Amino acid sequence: MLSLHVRAPIARFLAPLVGVLARAGVSPDIVTFVGTVGVSAGALVFFTRGHFFVGTLVITAFVFSDMLDGLIARARGTVSVWGAFWDSALDRVGDAAVFGSLVMWYAGDGDSLPLAGAALGALIGGSVTSYVKARAESVGLSANVGFAERAERLIIVLVCAGLYGLGVPLLLPIALWFLAGATAITAVQRFIEVRRQAVAAALTAAEDAGTASR
Q1: Which CATH architecture has domain 2-207?
Q2: Which residue in 22, 123, 149, 171 could disulfide with 75, CB within 3.0 to 4.6 Å?
Q3: If DSSP states are collapsed to H, E and C, what string results for the chain?
Q4: Spatial CA neighbour of 175 closest among 62, 56, 87, 63
Q5: For residue 188, how many C-alpha atoms fall within 13 Å in the half-sphere facing its CB?
Q6: What angle do CA 9, 11, 15 make, to 5 degrees?
Q7: Any idea of the CA torsion for 105, 111, 114, 117, to the nearest 10 degrees?
Q8: Is 91 tagged catalytic?
């Protein structure tokens, strides 16, 4: 998926900064928190007022912390279950701020309730998609299917929002409708995949129990 292809070059680009921060003893949890605050503030301050280009620049700068925290944790040898939980939980806050700000813009000065609905659909669909994956992993299954993962959603919406700010407004509505549909499809794909794995696990357990009782 796209996220797998973009993470490696970004990690190489960030390597010098990661080294400096790791040696300075910077906490990955603090980096995660600051990044989430920056993303949320950038969206709520700029997107809700229609300042899409500046907002995109601010959000993009802080989105890098989504990788920076994990890289610092690995460099310091402090990777933990708590860190993974903290990062995942705050990702949901940042995503909600970005798409929620677009809902507010289109419901207000953007003057388009259908597009406010599309942004809301993308927000809900993205939340469900992420939840299904997390819940599946919590019960020992996986849901790594579908196109609309978090990295893809953010890249699409931020690129189109930035172009909106540069005078190309048509792409953002297209992106929102696309993401609303893509996240819904991805959520359904993940439900089906988890169902398939759960049924297979149940059949295997039944066969094992039958074999043991013979």
Answers
A1: Up-down Bundle (1.20)
A2: 22
A3: CHHHHHHHHHHHHHHHHHHHHHHCCCCHHHHHHHHHHHHHHHHHHHHHHCCHHHHHHHHHHHHCHHHHHHHHHHHHCCCCHHHHHHHHHHHHHHHHHHHHHHHHHHHCCCCCHHHHHHHHHHHHHHHHHHHHHHHHHHCCCCCCCCCCCHHHHHHHHHHHHHHHHCCCCCHHHHHHHHHHHHHHHHHHHHHHHHHHHHHHHHHHHHHHHHHHHC
A4: 56
A5: 5
A6: 120
A7: 20
A8: yes
Token digits for 180? 């609303």
Instruction: State the catalytic residue, choosing from 91, 95, 109, 208.
Output: 91
> Which residue in this structure is represented by tokens 């129990």?
209
- Please, is 205 exposed, middle or buried when counting C-beta atoms within 10 Å of its C-beta (0-12, 13-18, 19+)? exposed
Average pLDDT, 10 consecutive residues per value, the chain (214 residues): 61 81 87 94 97 96 82 86 89 95 97 97 94 91 86 92 96 97 94 94 80 66
Using CB atoms within 10 Å of the CB of residue 25, give its burial: 0 to 12 exposed, 13 to 18 middle, 19+ buried: exposed
Residue 1 confidence (pLDDT): 47
Q: Token digits for 102?
A: 């677009």
Question: pTM higher than 0.85, yes or no?
Answer: yes
Quote the tokens at residue 60.
């993009």
Residue that the structure tokens 């680009």 belong to: 13
